[in-house]
Write the structure tokens for this entry.
Amino acid sequence: MKPRILVIEDERHIAEGLKINLELAGYDVTVAVNGKVGIQKWEEVKPQLILLDIMMPELDGHGVLERVRRKDSKIPILILSAKNASVDKVKAFHGGVDDYLGKPFSVEELLLRVERLLLRASWNKEENGVSELYEFGPHRIDFSLFKATTPDGMIDLTEQEAKILRFFFTHPHKALTRAELLEEGWGYAEDINTRTLDNFMVRFRKYFESDPKKPKYFCSVRGVGYIFDPEGKGR
Amino acid sequence: MIRYRWITNPVTVFIFSLIALGSSLWLYIHSYLRVNDAFQEFVRKRNLDPSPLLETETWVMILIVSVLVALILIGVIIIFVYYQKMIQLYRMQQNFINGFTHELKTPIASLRLFLDTFSRHKLDEESQKKYLGYMIRDTERLSDNVNQILNLARIEDKKYEAQWEVGDIRLFIQNWLQKTSYWSEDADVIFMEQVGQPLYVKYDINLLPLVFMNLVNNAQIHNKSDRPRVEISARLQGKNVTVSFKDNGIGISKAEAKKVFRKFYQVKKAAKGSGIGLYLVQTVMRFHKGSVRLFSEGEESGTTFILSFPFCDEVSP
């Protein structure tokens, strides 16, 4: 599958020039004409990398960077800006940008930077992420198919369930707060409360615990949240 | 360190200086009166002749000191206001440099991008044509930007060599729209009421296009609608020919409307521009012995700019 890149640039000519060059280099490119549209497209397309301009109407590059970083601290973001002074760069790096390229720029340099950023991101995923298959106890989860195989049979997982399971699997033996779990599963949606999460946990226990009343894998931590124990030793 | 930075803030320094000056004046007068009282007490105890001259001298002295302090105060305030204005001007100039650099770098970046594309890939003929068109527009944008600054500087220095021509403004608008048809890429620029009595005005052939370009450009930048639209119309009003540019943009508040023609002034929400466009429009219109005004129902309801030229009865310049 082609890596997806989101270009947030209000100058039409530059946006189109970037699109054609990135497409010819084998990427799947989406263009957003301002920051506001950029945020929408970012949520829609779920790109692997963002190319971001600074000076834009509606919502500028710094605003976009702040909003993206609030929810996703890992996605590689490269700023392309005519503002090329050290103070501008420092401000952007403080905001959490990964790379900064001043305009005018060479296409070759840009493509090499993009390639490198995507490569690094893929290493991070390998190191920190959970592979598509995960096993614990007698259970086996296939994230690519959203399926869990348990001794009692096959279970179809919802996207939310998969997200939360993945979060547990990447943080074994660590007490995760309700707030962390809610944010991971639902972002910052306001109408979701801790009750929803507790219902999810009841379901997980029904799926994976031999005695849901005495959980061994998904245990409660009083006043905090939940902890996942891959060995199933309980607490 | 950051916590104490307010101490060196000019406003804080100014307020403390005023307090110090006021306190010292009070202390002077207070101590002077005390010394004076002691002296009078001494005179009374010794039964000496109290000189009425002494009394008058005291109050003359206090008056003189007060006047001097008032003068110092006025001086400090003038210097402070002047300093604040300088700082403001400096900031505006910095903004202008940043904005203008952006205006120059953007077309250059676009040109470089397409040159790189051409040298790296063999594009089909249609794409080639399209991108060459983009490049031509980028060079036009670049030269417009440069001309704007150069001409403005020349007008301000009174060194601009005008190239006057007298002609029908309707024809001028039609020709200009044809030449700059590239607007149609991003906006609808429509000339209303194209036919009618010829409206002769005297204009400079290099400056007037810059005025038009700025007004259309502004209408396009400060616009949130799906498709920016500018309606141009020209008519005779008394002894003047007026050309209006009505847009469907975000409009402008009354407070901002008063300031937009100032040099380097930028509307707060604007992310782009150099703050010089409307100042140039006003300068050029004055150079034409005309004027520019703007009307807006307020924010979110579009803006109309009205250029006014003296009507020429005769065609000869």
